Amino acid sequence: MEYAFRGAHQAGITTPAQDRLHFAAFDVTTDSRDELIALLTAWTAAADRMTRGLPAGEIGPTQGSINLPPDDTGEAIGLDAGGLTITFGFGPTLFRDDDGKDRFGLADRQPKALRTLPHFPADVLDPDKSYGDLCVQACADDPQVAVHAIRNLARIGFGTVAVRWSQLGFGRTSTTSTAQSTPRNLFGFKDGTANIKSQEKKDVEKHVWVAPGADAQADWLAGGSYLVARRINMHIEIWDRQSLGDQEDFIGRTKDTGAPLSGGTEFTEPDFDMPGSTGPVIAEDAHVRLVHPDFNNGARMLRRGYNFVDGSNPLGGLDAGLFFIAYVTDPDTHFIPIQNTMAKHDAMMEYLKVTGSALFAVPPGIGPGEYVGQSLFA
Amino acid sequence: MEYAFRGAHQAGITTPAQDRLHFAAFDVTTDSRDELIALLTAWTAAADRMTRGLPAGEIGPTQGSINLPPDDTGEAIGLDAGGLTITFGFGPTLFRDDDGKDRFGLADRQPKALRTLPHFPADVLDPDKSYGDLCVQACADDPQVAVHAIRNLARIGFGTVAVRWSQLGFGRTSTTSTAQSTPRNLFGFKDGTANIKSQEKKDVEKHVWVAPGADAQADWLAGGSYLVARRINMHIEIWDRQSLGDQEDFIGRTKDTGAPLSGGTEFTEPDFDMPGSTGPVIAEDAHVRLVHPDFNNGARMLRRGYNFVDGSNPLGGLDAGLFFIAYVTDPDTHFIPIQNTMAKHDAMMEYLKVTGSALFAVPPGIGPGEYVGQSLFA
């Protein structure tokens, strides 16, 4: 399976969600605008190649001189493109670093919504798993393909960027196409039922892409999006000791089919007014209610989250949870208010702790001969 | 795909290596022998079920009372057995803890070779990624299946065991069947070419299983094996800057086909005497030479390693490498001397740092109605 790297929008957003993720955030270690542009140019060429199943460089892992390092690291020899998509984003600190310095002459083009996300209740952020000047999302059906992509981009960036943090995800939790069935998160529930599907073209336009003219200061971002990344640790050991009924009440859906507690099937619209024995059948603090567009000014997100397990925690359990990724047209309308509501009222929050957080502006698609983000530097 | 859980030997050793790994080491938090036996009995029942694609418990994730916690966590609903194998091992501290205490009345049955591995050069061990009273290796073709297995065993063990460390592996690096092609490690080289294959029945008997009578104190281990686990960090960023020729010299094989530098194809026996321009074609410090049975009293290992990437390291690179697993009849003859030779002389060692280490005795297969390790407690 191959997906086109170039187009009106970057791949890896509305692309049917692949099974595996390697996500990396980078710090730019140079102050040179030219070096930054050279990096983006080199990354574009390598990403274009790797998404076609080719080595990262023109010489390849084994075809060059034995006296030189190969321009591909070789662990993907013999593997095909694996449905690889590589999606690039720019963090707020690319425009103005933590000291307010405009290293690359970009400050006057910073998108208005591209700021460090505010502190939310339940945020216990690890700065070593948060933020970043640049991000790269590699999704593929083979984890070795996704890892190979990030690893080679890091190799190419040696001396210009350093990996700030990186996250592997082993199981997608969202569908971005109506052709996909809904997978389960580590709470054991179907996740992403109400996600925007690429087939919902009007909603994709409205809720995912940045419209031309939406941001006078950053019209370069038109056709792009915002990427919200949140590393959400789940207290799975505590969750597992809750009764089935409580788990379903927290979510507002059945664990079995994913149908709303008001009845029907997975894709039946929840009836938030249906009365139960005490209050509505779908509780006031149920997750499905609080994040529903009806209670959030109609806002929808396109989510591409992945489950993760990163070893163990000091409590003798697994360091596990959901690496949440959402693409939205504007985090000020499509993420921050919803996250605030959720953090304050959602019954599920008792079982969550957010340990990583980042926001990136995702430039539009890359045309023939262009490098990623070219409209920002033009 | 389903593999039988019960048999003469535990599954997950000679089973054709699956693509994904979740490995966990546990500390036993009780001093009660009865509770330990109850845990192993409950683990056996759950593992037997999960390897057949069934939920961990008889009720299942959604079929029980809404007033009780489910006896399966649910994230594997709708997934099949996924070729799952679950393999159990006992660490030295199960027999005698770090204070020398015999908590479970097992000290006089401790296998003679089951000791904390000696310190090797290049070992920079993190105690939080090393050792353990018990281990569970879950291998499957779907990572969600492997994670589900470990997570449910940890859930069942709540109050009796705590996860000490856990490791995900995303790409196998070894073949244990002649029907499998050889995958690549993160140095970009084929790994496991010379591995013992399950079809080599004589070598499996000789090098993998503990023979009856081999250890008078621990005859309960006959038909079992020893599991060596080593978390080997690769300095991939430094490796990637070495020339192709140097990389091949370090390994002693070509990067392309995996053939020995003395010629032929991947499975051609290396000619260690073939002269090159300076010394033998396969250098004195080449990895393939130093670990070859010809230079190690004929010892072979059955390896089941996996690649890993666990986020980033403080140097701005990836925390990546090889989670080495080997099954051997006796670590004193089949691992420790080879590891010492390698650590002292292998050119590849400059690019490795061992951050985790553990040794476990793997009890024999589980007969009908038995629990894992029953011969130890009988």
Automatic annotation (TrEMBL), chains A, B:
EC numbers: 1.11.1.-
Stretches of the chain forming a coiled coil according to its record: none
Domain spans labelled Dyp-type peroxidase N-terminal: 10-170
Domain Dyp-type peroxidase C-terminal: 182-365
Chief site of localization: other
Family: Belongs to the DyP-type peroxidase family.
Top-level lineage group: Bacteria
Subcellular location: Cell envelope
Database matches in InterPro entries: Dimeric_a/b-barrel, Dyp_perox_C, Dyp_perox_N, Dyp_peroxidase, EfeB/EfeN
Protein name (record): Deferrochelatase
NCBIfam families for the chain: Dyp_perox_fam (TIGR01413), tat_substr_1 (TIGR01412)
Top-level EC class: oxidoreductase
Listed cofactors: heme b
Keywords in alphabetical order: Heme, Iron, Metal-binding, Oxidoreductase, Peroxidase, Signal
Note on cofactor: Binds 1 heme b (iron(II)-protoporphyrin IX) group non-covalently per subunit.
Function: Involved in the recovery of exogenous heme iron. Extracts iron from heme while preserving the protoporphyrin ring intact.
